[in-house]
Amino acid sequence: ISDQKPLGCWSVKHGQILTCPVVCNFETHEYIAVHDDKVLRIWKNEDINLDKAFKATLSADVYRIHSLPHGGPVVLFRGGGVRTLDVLLEAPQQEIENVISGEVIRWSGAFMEGQQPVLIFTTEKDGDFFVYVQKPKLSSLHKYKLEQQESAKPLCFTAHTTNQIVTLLCLYSNDSVYQVLIPLQQDTEEEEEEEVEGEEVLSKSLLLKLSVSGAVLKGTSLVVLDKDHVAVLGSLAAPRKEPRECLTIWNTKFQTLQTSKELPLGTSGQLWCYEEKFFLIHGKVLTVIMYKCETSSLAAAVGKLKYSQTPDVSLFMNWNTLEDEELVASFQSQESVALKAESRINLRSRRSTVAEEQPETLSVGQILLNFKDASNYVLETKLRKLMTKAPTPDLQATIGCVVTALTDRCKRNPKYYPQNFLQEIVETRNLSYSLCPDLMAVALEKKDMHLLQLCLERFPDIPEEITYACLKAFLSMSESHLENMDVNLDSVICYIDVEFDNEEVKTEVVENGFRAEMDQDLCGSKIPKESQSRSDDDSCPIGPQKAALLNAVLHSAYTETFLLPHLKNLPAEEAILFLRYLYYLYVKCSEKVNTTLPGIRSPTINQIMDWMCLLLDAHFTVMVMLPEAKELLSNLHKFVRAQVRFYSELNKIEGSLRELQRLNHLRESHTYSIEVLEII
C-alpha cells in the first residue's frame, strides 16, 4: 500500500461480471472468485490470464465465499445451502438444497469453533429477520427468528464466537447496537427434526446507544474489535451543525465513546477490520488505519467521559495531528505500541494516561514538550541524545516526532532551518513520509533540493501531489542557481561526463538498432539540414544537478491515476524540457546491450518509459500544437520505430541463434578454432 503499486491484476472477459468478493485460500495460497453467479474460478498469484485459470460451473447461484485460516473456504449459496470448497469441487454439478423460501440473505459470516467451521447468515422476509447457524461438516442447521423492534430495523450485522456461544451484534436504524446470544448446540438427529418443525425466537438486549453530548451517530457499518470495543462508521449529526462522516470507537463495557476520526472526503459506508487495521474508502483512496486496543478499565472510561462533557463534542479529535497533550498520550512506550501509519489511535484517554504517568520516567511526548521553548542549539543537542537513547520498539515513531518537532519550529521561526541535521536524519534513519508529513513541505518552502532528493530516493509513501511539486520545483529552477547547490550526482556522473566549464564531453557511441541512414526510410518527410544537425547532437538538454534531481523523481513510487491530474498542470515549456531529458535517457539506455544505465540509483528503462508515457498522456494535445515540440516528437517517433524494426529483425534470427547455442553445448573443443557459420 505504501508503494502505491498494484502487485497483480486479473480481469474477466467483456460481458462477464464478478458477483461476489474474491477471497484467498490460506492453505493453498490461491484466489477464489465467482462470476456470473455460478462460474467458479481458482488461480495462483503467478497466473496471468484469468480465462486460463481453473473453471467450474456450479448448479446454483453463489452468495458469498468465506475463507477461514484453518478451516478452508466455505461457499454459501443464495438458497441458503452451504458446502466446503473441497466437497463442492468433488462434484461441481451436485444438487444444492434450498434452505430458505422467499427470504433474501442480508449478511453472512464464518468462524472456527474448535476444529469445526461455523457459518451464520441473516435473512429478511416481509419485514421479519431470521438467523441461520450451520456447521457444514456436520450437516447441521439451526434456524431462529430475530425479535422485532418497534419502528426500527437492522441495518448491518457482525458476530464473533466465544466458548460455544455466537454473539451477534445488530446495528439498528434507531441509532442503537443490540446484542443477541446464540448457543452453539450439540447436534443430534432429534434436534434436527425439532428445528425443522418450529423456529426459536431470539431475544436481544441493548448494548450501546450511539449518542453523546447531544450528538447522534447515524451508523452504516459495524465491526467488533475485542470483547469490550466496537468500531462504527457513520454520519455524526449534532444540533445546529452540518452532519459529518466519522469513524468512531466505542467501549461497550462502560457505554462510552473512546475516540473518533472525522472523514471530510466522505466514505462508501463500508468498514473492514483485519489484524488490528481498519480498511475504508475515504474519498477516492483506500485508507488503512492501525489501532491498538488496551485493556478496558473504569478509570480510562470515566476519564474520557469527564473530558467529553462539552457542548461542542470536543472528544472528536483529529488523529492526523499530534499536538501537546496528544503527543504525550501517543508515546507511552511501556504501555502501548507505537503506530507507524497515516494515523495513530490510542484507545486510552489522554487525561487518564497523563494521570498514571510516572514522574521519574518521562515519555517522548513530555520530553519534547520540555524542549518546546529551548534554544536552537539546546534543542538539537537534546534531540540527538533522544534518538540515541530511544527504545527499540518505538524508535521509528520517536524519530518521526523529532523531525516533527524540528519542522514545527521551522514554521514558527522562518529564520530557523537545521538543514544539516534534517539531512543527517533522513540519510541515516529509515523514515517514511507518513512519519513526518511536513518535512518535504518545509524543504520545498526553503528550496532545499538536496533534502528533497534524499526524501524522494528513500521515502516509499510520498503522495503524488508532493512528487509533482518536487518535479515542478526542479524543472523551474535555473541551471545557474542549481550549480551552487549541494546535490548528489552519483546517479548521473557515469553517463554525463562533465568538464570544469560544465560543458558535456561528447563521446561517439553506436546506438542499438539506430542508424542515421535508417531515418530517411522511416520518415515520410526529410528534416532540414539545420534541424538535422541539432537532432544528431546527443548532448544532455539539462545540467547534471537538475538531471540528478529529476532522476530522484523517476525513482519515486506513484499511482498513475493520482499523478496524471497533477502532471496536466505542468507548464508546456517545462513538460517539453522534461520530455527532452527522458528522450535523452531513452537513447542512452538503448546504447547499452543490457539497456541499463551505469551509476548508483540511475533510472531504469522501465521507469523512463513509464514517465514518457505519463507525460505524453498528460500533454499530447499541447505538444502536437507547439512548433518547438514538433522536432522532439518526430525524433522520438523515428527512434522508437527504429527500435521496433531492430528487435523485429532479431526475432527473425532467434531460431538460428538458439540452434547455434545448442551446437556449442554439444561440441566440446579444447583447442583454439575459428568457425564461420552461415545463417540462411
TrEMBL record:
One Gene Ontology cellular component annotation held by this UniProt entry: nucleolus
GO BP: maturation of SSU-rRNA
Protein keywords: Activator, Nucleus, rRNA processing, Transcription, Transcription regulation
Record's subcellular location: Nucleus, Nucleolus
Domain Nucleolar protein 11 N-terminal span(s) in chain numbering: 1-292
Location of the Nucleolar protein 11 C-terminal domain: 370-678
Molecular-function annotations in GO: RNA binding
InterPro entries (UniProt xref): NOL11, Nol11_C, NOL11_N
Primary residence: nucleus
Keyword Nucleus among record annotations: yes
Alphabetized PANTHER family for the sequence: NUCLEOLAR PROTEIN 11
Record-given protein name: NOL11 protein
Annotated organism of origin: Rhabdornis inornatus
